[in-house]
Each structure stands twice: as C-alpha cells, then as structure tokens.
Amino acid sequence: MLGITVLTALLACASSCGVPSFPPSLSARVVGGETAQPHSWPWQISLQYLENNRWWHTCGGTLIASNFVLTAAHCISSNQIYRVALGKHNLEVEDEEGSLIVDVDTIYVHKNWSYDLAINDIALIKLAEHVELSDTIQVACLPEKDSLLPNDYPCYVTGWGRLWTNGPIADELQQGLQRVVDHDTCSSSDWWGTTVQKTMVCAGGDGVISACSGDSGGPLNCQLENGCWVVFGIVSFGSPWGCNTFKKPVVYTRVSAYIDWINE
C-alpha cells in the first residue's frame, strides 16, 4: 500500500502532496530564531517520547502517507515509547487547533544503519491509525528515485531544534534557507571530506543559517519547478563545533537514494 501511495505522490504531486494551504514565507531561518508561518509546512511532525509522565520533543519527521512518517534512524531508541504530533506550530500549546496526536504502531529502522559511520540514517514510522488530511495536516512529496539537485539550489530546513548552539529548544516551528552543496564540494578536504557519502546531501555551511540539535529527522524541503515541495533530505548530522560552522553544512540522508527501501 505504501508503494502505491508513493507512486501516486510522484505522479500527481500538484494535487495530492507538497502544496500547503498556507504558503510559507521564504525568508526565515532556523538558528537565529525566525519563526515559520503557522501550518505552512503541514507535513512536519514532532516525534515525542514519554519520560516521567510527560511527553518530550526529540526529533522532527515528515508525513509521507496518511499513516507513515519518515525520520532519521538515530532518532529511534528501542527502549522508548513514542507518539507523533501532527499539525503543530507551537509545541507548548497542548490542544492547538488543527493538531492531532497519534500513537505509533511499528518503527522500521534501516537494517544497515550505522551510528559510527552515520550511513543509512533513515527510518519509517507506521502510525497506529490513518490520519485525516486537512489544511494543517498534509503529506509531502518524495523525490524521483536517484535524483540530484544542483549546487546552490535553495531548500528550507524546518524544525523545533535549538535556536543557537547550546541554546533553548524552539516552542514555535522554525525554518531556514539551506542551499545545496554538491557532493564534490562537500566531500573536499576543507569541508566534510570522506565522511560524506553519495547517499547523503549537504546543505548550508555559510556559517550563519543552520539546523541544530532537535531538528534531527526533519525534512529538507525543496520546491520543484511545478511548485510542489519534496522532502529531499532528512536531517542527519552537523558539526561538533557548533550548529552554524562555516564549511560544515548540515548533512542530510538523501531521500532519493532510498525510494526502493521506502516502497518496500
């Protein structure tokens, strides 16, 4: 069923996915505290875990079907209980209008995920129920298999991660412009070197705008010429020297390299 859903999304993105009812303002950033327009990224989810009778945000993710969420493998721990919050803008507003809390059925972590090498950092979360799509809850499109974006292509990362290195977690959803850095550049010695594999994509690295801790698992949103948004990357890792380190762009799992795995 998921494979059929994904195929439909690829063939009919303009009508079924990737077109928010509330268009985003494309000038904000994540690190720096700029806030996204409410519900302008309606496929963005908050992955939350239970601790001391309270739910805590841990990672982002992307709704790609009415009962499937895409996130990063490193966000998942086998000893945690998770839930997914959809249609959220402000995480501090418990009964936010247009939002929905859904339990998790099954989590599929890529069998070749390696924490040490940060490769295959991808996971699928099957929700306990199908969610009803609305103006505030929509699905993102997936990119065409093995597709690449050119150097300097403008994309946006979204999430509730830290507003600056070691800073506070955001209450309201943040967004930030992240321009794609091609593999040849990002794998050069003064950038990320051999750490970056071809199943990854780099974006950012200007030392000003970046994702940060807590944004993990969330989408790198890239708008295609037809106007629809695709989730081209999943926030995987960044620089140990800080969230917005020059020539150390955020590294994302490249979703187009995993289309077959998602369809399975």
From TrEMBL:
UniProt superkingdom: Eukaryota
Residues of the signal peptide: 1-16
InterPro entries: Peptidase_S1_Elastase_sf (IPR050850), Peptidase_S1_PA (IPR009003), Peptidase_S1_PA_chymotrypsin (IPR043504), Peptidase_S1A (IPR001314), Trypsin_dom (IPR001254), TRYPSIN_HIS (IPR018114), TRYPSIN_SER (IPR033116)
Keywords: Disulfide bond, Hydrolase, Protease, Serine protease, Signal, Zymogen
Any Gene Ontology biological process: proteolysis
CDD domains: Tryp_SPc (cd00190)
PANTHER family: CHYMOTRYPSIN-LIKE ELASTASE FAMILY MEMBER, ELASTASE 3 LIKE ISOFORM X1
Protein name (Swiss-Prot/TrEMBL): Chymotrypsin C
Species of origin: Chlorocebus sabaeus
Phylogenetic lineage: Eukaryota, Metazoa, Chordata, Craniata, Vertebrata
Gene behind this protein: CTRC
